[in-house]
Amino acid sequence: MATDQMAAPQAGDDKTMLLVDDDRPFVGRLARAMEQRGFEVRTAETVSEGLAALKTGAPAYAVVDLRLGLGNGLDVIEALRRQRPGARAVVLTGYGNIATAVNAVKLGAIDYLAKPADADEVIAALTRDPEIKAEPPENPMSADRIRWEHIQRIYEMCDRNVSETARRLSMHRRTLQRILAKRAPR
Question: In what residue span(s) does the Response regulatory domain sit (predicted)?
Answer without folding.
Answer: 16-130
